[in-house]
User: Fold this.
Amino acid sequence: MRHVLLINPINPNTSASTTEHLAQTLRPLLPVGVQLTLGMATFGAHYIACEPSHAVAGAAAPQALQAQVHSTLVRRRPEAAPS
Assistant:
């Protein structure tokens, strides 16, 4: 079985452009063979800039992480062996 190192950072705001900027910043820093998959909050502030948006991000980030882990596991699930 081949093992792959995954890095799954979570962007706790809802800005796709910020998430993409994070990905573009991180990819060149990764060693060869490391895969980057970013998650993003599905609710909350577009940009986190005040105490209330931080509070909402604190609730959004765990949900985004759970969704990201589930998505990664589903994508990497080995195909069932033929019977």
Q: What stands out?
A: Helices lie at 16-26, 51-76. The mean pLDDT is 85. The two ends are 21 Å apart (CA to CA).
